[in-house]
Specification:
Helix content is about 30%, strand content about 15%. By secondary structure, it is an alpha/beta fold. It has a single domain, classed as Inosine-uridine Nucleoside N-ribohydrolase, Chain A (Alpha-Beta Complex). Strands 3-2-1-4-5 form a 5-stranded parallel β-sheet, sandwiched between helices. Strand 4, helix 5 and strand 5 form a beta-alpha-beta unit. It is globular, with a radius of gyration of 15 Å.
Length: about 170
C-alpha cells in the first residue's frame, strides 16, 4: 500500500528480510503501519528459529494484520559457513513463544528469497531499500549474485547485533 511520509513525500519502497521471532514480528507490524514505508515484500532466513518457523511466522503476522497481499519468500535454511544455532530458548521453539491460534492462510511464494528480491529489484521503478533484521545470509546472496541490480538498491539497512551473545 503506497502512503506518504510526514512531509507529504511518497513512501519509501522497502523489502524486509527477517527471521521472525518476537522482534521481527513487531518489525513487520511497524513497517506496515508506518505511512512513510511501502512494504513491498518480506523474505525470511533461519536465525531466531528454523526457516520453516520464520516463514510461517511472517505469513501469520501478515494475515493477522490484514496484509496477506505482501509476498513472502523463504531464503536460506542456515548460515553459509557454519551450523545453524537458533535462539529458541529466547523466542520459543516456534519463534513466538507459543502457538498462534491461526495457521497461515497461504504458503510462501513459489520462489526463493533471492529470486523474489531479484524480481522486486527488476520490476521496481525506483531503487528499493533492503532492511535486514536477521542473519545477513540472504543479503550476502544478493550482493554476491545480483551485481547487475545493485543500482536498484537504495541502501541496505541492518539491525546489527552481538557477535557472540545475541538474544540474551
Amino acid at each position: 500500500m503506497i502512503g506518504t511520509d510526514a512531509t507529504g513525500g511518497v513512501a519509501r519502497k522497502v523489502l524486509l528480510d527477517c527471521d521472525p521471532g518476537h522482534d521481527d514480528a513487531i518489525a513487520i507490524m511497524l513497517a506496515v503501519a508506518d505511512p512513510s514505508i511501502d512494504l513491498i515484500a518480506v523474505t525470511t532466513v533461519a536465525g531466531n528459529v528454523t526457516l520453516e518457523h520464520t516463514t510461517s511466522n511472517a505469513l501469520r503476522v501478515l494475515d493477522l494484520i490484514g496484509r496477506a497481499d505482501i509476498p513472502v519468500a523463504a531464503g536460506r535454511a542456515g548460515p553459509r559457513e557454519r551450523e545453524l544455532s537458533t535462539a529458541a530458548v529466547m523466542h520459543g521453539e516456534g519463534g513466538l513463544a507459543g502457538p498462534l491460534p491461526i495457521a497461515p492462510s497461504r504458503g510462501p511464494a513459489d520462489c526463493t528469497a533471492l529470486e523474489l528480491i531479484e524480481q522486486v529489484l527488476t520490476e521496481a521503478d525506483e531503487p528499493v531499500t533492503l532492511v535486514a533484521t536477521g542473519p545477513l545470509t540472504n543479503m550476502a546472496d544478493v550482493v554476491e549474485s545480483l551485481p547487475r541490480l545493485h543500482h536498484m538498491i537504495r541502501e541496505i539497512v541492518i539491525m546489527g547485533g552481538a557477535v557472540d551473545l545475541g538474544n540474551w
